[in-house]
Amino acid sequence: MTRKLLVVVVVALYVLHQDFWFWRTAHPLVFGFIPIGLFYQACFSVAASLVMWLLVKYAWPSHLEREIESQPKEDRSA
Amino acid sequence: MIPAIVVFIYLGVVLYIGIFAFRKAAGRKKAEDYFLASRSLGPFVFLFSLFGTNMTAFAILGASGHAFSNGIVTFGLMASSSGLVIPLTIFLCGTRVWALGKKYGFMTPVQMFRDRWECNHIGTVIFTVQAVLLVPYIIIGIMGGGTTLDAVSGGFVPYWFGGAIVALVVMGYVFFGGMRGTAWVNTFQTILFLLFGTVAIIVIATGMGGFTNAVQAMANSPALAPLLTRERISPYYFFSYTFIPLSAIAFPHILIFCLTAEKMAHFKKTVIFYPLCIMAIWLPCVFLGLMANRVTDVPQIRDKQEARRVLATQGKTMAPEARDEVREKSAGDDVILLLLKRYAPLWLAGLLGAGIMAAVMASDSQILALSTMFTEDVFAHYGGKRRFGESVQVQTGRIFVVVLTLFAYAVALRAPETIFELAIQYAFSGFAALSPLIIAALFWKGSTKWGALAVTVWVATAVFAVALFQQVVPAPAPGPPTVFWSLGGTEIISRTPGGTAVYGFMPVVPMVIVSALLMFVVSKLTPKPKPATISKYFDFLNR
């Protein structure tokens, strides 16, 4: 359930990247000089970092970590 | 001249770090030590070196140059989309590649593909295509070095000499330090260019008397107001760009870097902080590139603005060659350097120039990756290691570093394209379209070597076709594209001022979609690897 929710969050974030609603306007200018479209995309970067934190916390492939730490390295087969 | 001296001191420090790493590794003759730093990088070095290796001249010079011509759209196009896609692919694929590398001893992606899909020469085909696509990336670094030293020294160090110095320094620390030297240098460089953005924006803002008036004036100017919005770029183009960061996980140097972490936990900070690091570098660069449009007292910037005006008003009536010449004059790859020269005190301009140089020199990882691939995927695979021993293998890798750097320098002297165009049109799109290889290898039991071959041949053909098309059909003036092929009134293939459009999208979109389809269809029709091989991977990955 958690994983499905995380997939939805990632897809939603990807969709939110296509912010056509600020396409043709510079206003409002945030802090008097940052066009709204640029400010939105900067906020998007912060949101991406938060989503990555969620992924690391709730979907980390810890089984691989455990497996590697518990087993001696095998001979290379490639 | 003072800024150039500061940059030269910086280059000396970087070279020393590489040689220090060489001394630290003295006595260690193993290929794994030279090429992967014995898979022992700690969390701090891993985060900064992995991030630094993905930031090239393209990030600082290309970003500000693109923003100078296209406005704020640059950040959404290249930075924020990368801030989502790159850490996501490192989280999904990088961790798994690391685990497989630790378990089975892989040193390159091709080694893993050969084992995963039970193939031999198909691996060599993948190696060849990866190598050919990686070379432009290396050329970018040398071109950026030449541009930076030329601009920082006020023309005292010419482009050809600056490029040669950068090539020699990079070659030096990669040759001596291998992966350990490269990772340490990358860490030092990443810290420098993370500081660069903040300092540069404060200095230039102070010099310009704040940004509020400049932005207000741009908003009131009919010619410049569109740069504060995205109206010059179509939503199709904007959407297309989100496919480009898929290239990161297909780049061999990124995958090889994923193998260097000592522990998987080191990926956690990298994944979380990646979007913020990208923002810290790109936001100031994009904004400063935008602000360069308000600068009227720097002759070189004025010339660029004039060239852009000529292109917009007379471009349609010009011969293609003349148009390309004016377009090149209007390119803004060096605007950030010109701004620093105008507004920063001399000593600070030098330090900031060193910060830019740090980003420019990220081609080290690509050079080392190609050397690793050549020695592991070709030299060792075809019996060289067995016949001559591991010590000769490492020396072969070092010789390869020298030959490759000299070749890249020779090409950089002749390449006419701007840094940005060269990177995007060839290397990034090609690697993005190769990403189905790594995704299928790690997540789909049903994938086969024939599917992998189909993807690789398709990518090579598509990249060649796009390059050829853009050579044959000249770029039109700013405005509507030249329609090359339409069907029932719908534009299928067009030549745009910046490249090619397929059904309105960048070529990377159909390239990635066709790659994924080929992997699926061809794999369905061809025999799978032995069950033992499949379970060797998926019993472990899916446990």
Would you write up a description of this structure?
The complex is a heterodimer of chains A (78) and B (543). Chain A has 78 residues and is mainly alpha-helical. Chain A is 62% helix and 5% strand. In chain A, helix 1 (2-17) packs antiparallel against helix 2 (36-58). The longest helix of chain A is centred in the middle third of the chain and has 23 residues, at 36-58. Chain A is elongated and about 60 Å long. Chain B has 543 residues and is mostly helical. Chain B has helices at residues 2-24, 31-36, 43-54, 57-70, 73-104, 109-116, 121-152, 159-207, 212-220, 235-241, 247-250, 252-258, 266-291, 299-314, 320-330, 335-343, 346-360, 363-380, 384-388, 390-414, 419-443, 449-472, 508-525, 531-541; strands at residues 482-487, 490-496, 499-502. In chain B, helix 8 (159-207) crosses helix 17. The longest helix of chain B has 49 residues, at 159-207. The radius of gyration of chain B is 23 Å and the shape is globular. Chain B starts with a helix and ends with a helix. The mean pLDDT of chain B is 86. Chains A and B meet through helix 1, strand 2, helix 2 and helix 3 of A and helix 5, helix 6, helix 9, helix 10 and helix 13 of B.
